[in-house]
Amino acid sequence: MSSRWHSVLVFGIWISSSWSFNSAQTTARTYQNKTVVLPCHVDSLGVPTTVRWWKDDRQLADSGDPNFVLDPRVKMWDNMSLEISQVQPEDSGEYVCQATRPSSWGHVTQVHAIEVMYPPSVHSVPEAGELEVNLGDEVEIACIAKGVPYPSISWRMKDEEMKLLDERSKLRFPADNRSLSGRYTCVADNGVGDPATAAIELRIRYKPEIEPKKSWIHAAPGMRVQLDCRVSAWPEALIDWYFEGEKIHFSSRIVKHTADQVHSLIIRNVRATDYGYYQCKASNNLGVTEAPIELSGIANAAFFKEANPMSRNAYNFIWEVDSYSPIIEYQFWFRKYWPSERHDWHKLFIPSGSEAIGPLHSKCFNLTGLAPATYYEALVLARNRYGWSKPSKVQRFSTEGAPPHKEHYKVVEVYSESAPAVVLGSPALQQSLSESNGASTRKILPSLIILISTLRYLTTT
Ligand SMILES: *[C@@H]1O[C@H](CO)[C@@H](O)[C@H](O)[C@H]1NC(C)=O
Ligand SMILES: *[C@@H]1O[C@H](CO)[C@@H](O)[C@H](O)[C@H]1NC(C)=O
Ligand SMILES: *[C@@H]1O[C@H](CO)[C@@H](O)[C@H](O)[C@H]1NC(C)=O
Ligand SMILES: *[C@@H]1O[C@H](CO)[C@@H](O)[C@H](O)[C@H]1NC(C)=O
């Protein structure tokens, strides 16, 4: 395209000659408002030559017509170079310089290009920057970027870089976890000026979820208690409180309170009639979720403070228990747990010997008659006027002469005395037995209390 062979008759001899451009094809990369010069140098060979500049079929300049002006920003120099000042993004494109000679020579053309670099801009899809879907729905969000050179797009979610397999302007994923809710920001960067960002707030609608802080609360008459439910839901949930299945009537003594996501029921000056099962019920248009909280006068689970060997067959224990009413008695359970397979619990009823109101009650107990060189485990329960507490965590100990402690034993034992069997010894259960806020505790507890009452009956008759 840049050269063409022509046969010319000069002084009666046909000679062949090429005519071509001296200037090289160029792509001018520049910025907005700058001035660009595109060259167009042709060997004139003394032949009259006209040069015209074109862009997209529009003529910009004509050396044969110096008065031709399409755009005041465009000027053609004597050496045929084209100058464009104040370039704008829309000036990007191909520029054709066309040199024309008398008919036998025809014309030749050279193509140059201008690329006006400009900073990125970006807009989100959906344009409003917000998207709400139901849990499980497909999410589709995108960012449409402009800029020269074309920007690269990266994504951030809640201010954390998202690790994607490849660069993409569109994100598509199932909203299968509500933790995917949040702000998605795309960043378009092309190295020119500052990166541009656009954000989309994704909201996932889901049925309320409740995390009761404590599913069991110990209180004494006269106290102020607070029952908390941490509720998360979208749309925001409506919270109702129930007591023994009945909607609660609020009063100056029983009020509700909301702070952030925590909904609380506050009972001032607790009465014995307030003991029982409460429920916080959270509802939105996707469903209803409820969580039980028991308000009780029974003691918190006891915990061992100390366990020290006294002799080859005696051990000393000190435990503590929180109770707002005096402790009447304790149950001390112990059994061998290793090396042989299965042992029944031995249960001792120990009078508290104290009228102390509390809240902290401490007890020292000497367990005698143990076998030497043996591994044991023990737990303790406390009874006040409202009933038996949950069992403490299991305390393990060994009498003098026991071989070094090994971790290879497996302890999965079953309370065998009564029908509602409880597996004790698995770490998960021990944890749930010892935590006053585990939902599973509540399920285990009543059967355990029945079991203990039965045992007590058997041992006292
Ligand atoms: C170019 O000039 C225009 C008008 O004077 C101005 O608004 C714009 O910011 C300038 N652009 C750059 C990249 O300097
Ligand atoms: C064309 O002329 C201008 C001004 O006379 C000069 O600055 C420029 O270098 C020339 N272009 C070439 C390619 O010689
Ligand atoms: C939801 O996401 C959270 C946080 O990434 C994660 O801990 C949880 O296991 C996920 N839940 C499900 C059901 O995948
Ligand atoms: C346990 O034994 C120690 C040492 O014999 C004794 O000092 C302590 O009073 C005993 N404690 C109880 C509660 O019997």
UniProtKB/TrEMBL annotation:
GO biological process, one term: cell differentiation
Keywords: Disulfide bond, Immunoglobulin domain, Repeat, Signal
Residues forming coiled coils: none
Domain of life per record: Eukaryota
Stretch forming the signal peptide: 1-20
Matches recorded under CDD domains: FN3, Ig
InterPro entries recorded: Cell_Adh-Cytoskel_Orgn, FN3_dom, FN3_sf, Ig-like_dom, Ig-like_dom_sf, Ig-like_fold, Ig_I-set, Ig_sub
Domain Ig-like: from-to ranges: 32-109, 120-205, 208-296
Domain Fibronectin type-III: 299-402
SMART domains: IG, IGc2
Gene3D superfamilies reported for this sequence: Immunoglobulins
Pfam families per record: I-set, Ig_3
GO cellular component terms, semicolon-separated: plasma membrane
PANTHER family named among the record's database cross-references: CONTACTIN 5, GH03113P
Protein name: Limbic system-associated membrane protein
